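Researcher: We plan to redesign the surface later, but first we want a full-length starting point. C-alpha cells attached.
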C-alpha cells in the first residue's frame, strides 16, 4: 500500500514528540541528582593539634586512630520523577495523535481492502460476462453451422432421392420396355405354335381374330382354355380350343421371371 505524505509527517511529528519527552526526562533526572549531591553534608575530619616545639628531641607519640566517618543516610527510593503537567499534556497529545493515526491507518486499510474487493468482484463479474458472451457467440455460431449442415444434408438427401427416383423410373421404364418386348415376342411364339396346331374348319372365314384366355403351369402345360372376343362361329371356337391343347406345352419365356400362369393370346391365323 502506498504511504501518503500526511501519514509520513504525522509519523515524524510523533517521533519528535517522543524523543523530546525522553530528553526532558533525562535532563530532569540529571538536575535532581545534582541537587541531591549538593545538599549532602561533608563528613567531619578528626584531628589533634600538636605544637612543633614539643616534637623536637622527643619521640613522636602514636598517631591517634581516626574516627570513623559517619555514613550518609541511604537515599530514599522516591521512584521516577513525576512528569510535569506540560509533559503529561504532551504525552496525552502524542498518545491521542498516535491513536488517531492508527485509527486513520486502519480506516484507510479497510477502505483499500474494500476497494480491492470491489475491484476484484467487478473484474470477476466482467470476466464472467465476457465468458458468457463468448459462449453464447460460440453456441450461436455452432447452432448456425448445425442448421446449415442440416439444411445442406436435407438438400443432398432430396437430391439423392430425386436422382434415385429418376434412376428407378428410367430403369423401370427400360425394364418395362424390355419386358414388354420380351412378353410380346413370347406371346407371338405361343400364337404361332397354336396356329400350327390349328385345323381350320370348313366354316372358318378369312380374317379370323379371337382373344384366347389360357391358363398354364410351370413347364408350359395348358390346364384351361376359354375363348373371349372372337369373330368365328362355334365350330371355329372349338377348333381353336383344341389347337391350344395340342400346342401344349407352350414355349417358355426368354426370361423365367416373365412367366405368367394366365395368358391373353391374340389368335389371328391369316
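Model: Full-length starting sequence:
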Amino acid at each position: 500500500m502506498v504511504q501518503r505524505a500526511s501519514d509520513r509527517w504525522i509519523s515524524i511529528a510523533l517521533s519528535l514528540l517522543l524523543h523530546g519527552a525522553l530528553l526532558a526526562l533525562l535532563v530532569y533526572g540529571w538536575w535532581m541528582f545534582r541537587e541531591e549531591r549538593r545538599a549532602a553534608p561533608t563528613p567531619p575530619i578528626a584531628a589533634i593539634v600538636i605544637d612543633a616545639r614539643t616534637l623536637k628531641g622527643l619521640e613522636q607519640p602514636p598517631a591517634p586512630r581516626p574516627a570513623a566517618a559517619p555514613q550518609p543516610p541511604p537515599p530514599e527510593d522516591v521512584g521516577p520523577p513525576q512528569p510535569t503537567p506540560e509533559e503529561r499534556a504532551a504525552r496525552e497529545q502524542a498518545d491521542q495523535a498516535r491513536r488517531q493515526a492508527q485509527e486513520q491507518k486502519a480506516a484507510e486499510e479497510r477502505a483499500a481492502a474494500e476497494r480491492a474487493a470491489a475491484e476484484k468482484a467487478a473484474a470477476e463479474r466482467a470476466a464472467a460476462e465476457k465468458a458468457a458472451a463468448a459462449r453464447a457467440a460460440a453456441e450461436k455460431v455452432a447452432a448456425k453451422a448445425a442448421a446449415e449442415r442440416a439444411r445442406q444434408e436435407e438438400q443432398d438427401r432430396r437430391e439423392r432421392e430425386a436422382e434415385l427416383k429418376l434412376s428407378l423410373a428410367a430403369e423401370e421404364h427400360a425394364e418395362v420396355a424390355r419386358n414388354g418386348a420380351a412378353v410380346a415376342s413370347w406371346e407371338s411364339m405361343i400364337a404361332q405354335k397354336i396356329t400350327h396346331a390349328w385345323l381350320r374348319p370348313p366354316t372358318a372365314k378369312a380374317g379370323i381374330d379371337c382373344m384366347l384366355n389360357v391358363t398354364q403351369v410351370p413347364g408350359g402345360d395348358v390346364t384351361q382354355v376359354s375363348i373371349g372376343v372372337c369373330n368365328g362361329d362355334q365350330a371355329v371356337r372349338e377348333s381353336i380350343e383344341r389347337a391350344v391343347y395340342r400346342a401344349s406345352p407352350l414355349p417358355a419365356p426368354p426370361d423365367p421371371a416373365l412367366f405368367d400362369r394366365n395368358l391373353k393370346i391374340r389368335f389371328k391365323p391369316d
